[in-house]
Amino acid sequence: MAPPDNGNDYIDFAKLIALDKLDDTTYRSKALAFGPANGNRTYGGHVYMQACYAAAQTIPRGMALHNVTGWFLLLGKANERFTYRVRKIRDGGYCTRYVDVVQESGSVVCFTCICSFKRPEKKSMATIDIRPSLDLRQEYAAVLGDMKPDEHQEVPGVDAPWYWEFQRRNNKYTDPFPGLKLRKVDMDPYNSDKPPLEKRNLKYYCVRGGMPSVEDDPNMHICAHLYASDRNSLFVISNNLGIGNDYSQIASLSHTVIMHADGPELSMVDAGTGEPIWFVQEAWTGGSRHGRGLHQSRMWREDGLQIASTMQDGMMRLKVHDGEEKAGWSPELMAQQLENSLRKDRRKGKL
């Protein structure tokens, strides 16, 4: 039997993030990564969160990730696994790690990141706790109403107009996304009278399946938040700026996440019931210039605790009519790829 083209399947997060240890500083993914539009181009959030989880295997117990910046250097292949090579930069009260990532078919680094871990502050230490809070239900009453998170639509495989049209023609089909449950809030009533830079996007997320306790493995819980943070992020830029399908190249260049919460505040499951906890990502764009776009977000617990801030620099190039477009990048070619893959699945009886 031929190997799968990607990891598009509703599997548990604990299975998705699992690693094989090759030696004390080298780890390899077990599960394949999600391929948007059922393609071979990897969702960047997979390698981003898993590189941090590989780094977490090399630090003392009890330390938790609080800051990471990663750079996407080459397209990942969704039908190949990733190898993570961790290098120690610093140990101490803060531990810093550098991670280079390669895939099975080559030795060229496709992703690299620097991540920092720290211990919880001692209760005897005086600290400052001044932070924003947000009443989501009040601020976004026009779009949230009384709806529960899972009553909103499933996040589309690609959050772009061409994919929405594809869904309308194919019984609301969306690519199965591993690891997390994701729900997209219809923001049109909130955004309709706002200029592009003031528009907001809301996305609910929670884990699939069971998790070790946050006390036993805080970094697995943190990595679930990292995994959610990059989902369809650049399409917030194109959609809010009115570009729609008028891009020729769109890709993440770098992504930064800063955690503002600690320990139980970041737990993806309720300690009492074991049920998954829903979180919300509130996202917007700071604009686009020089072939790039800026994605920003705040990540919230539903009770108004901000757990993280994110910032992403992405490639954002407009179409050049009569110009040659790159496979896997343009809306037209991605739509054609998805239509072809669905036809094959129907012939094989998978759908």
* Strand residues, percent: 25-35%
* CA gyration radius, whole angstroms: 20 Å
* CATH T-level topology: Porin
Architecture per CATH nomenclature, i.e. the level-2 architecture: Beta Barrel
At the first level of CATH, the class is Mainly Beta
Average predicted confidence as pLDDT: 93
DSSP E strands, number: 13
- List SSEs in N-to-C order: HEEHEEEEHHEHEHEHHEEEEH
Q: Order of strands in the sheet with the most strands?
A: 1-2-4-5-6-3-10-13-12-11-9-8-7
Please state the overall shape, judged from the principal axes of the Cα atoms: globular
Quickly count the helices.
Answer: 9
Instruction: Look at the helices and sheets and give the structural class.
Output: alpha+beta
List low-pLDDT spans.
Answer: none
For the biggest sheet, the summary is:
13 strands, antiparallel
Any idea what the CATH superfamily is called? Acyl-CoA thioesterase, double hotdog domain
Task: State the distance separating the first and last CA atoms.
Answer: 19 Å
- The amount of helix comes to 10-25%
Domain Acyl-CoA thioesterase-like C-terminal: 185-316
Pfam families: 4HBT_3, 4HBT_3C
Family: Belongs to the C/M/P thioester hydrolase family.
InterPro entries: ACOT8-like_C, Acyl-CoA_hotdog, Acyl_CoA_thio, HotDog_dom_sf, TesB_ACOT8-like_N
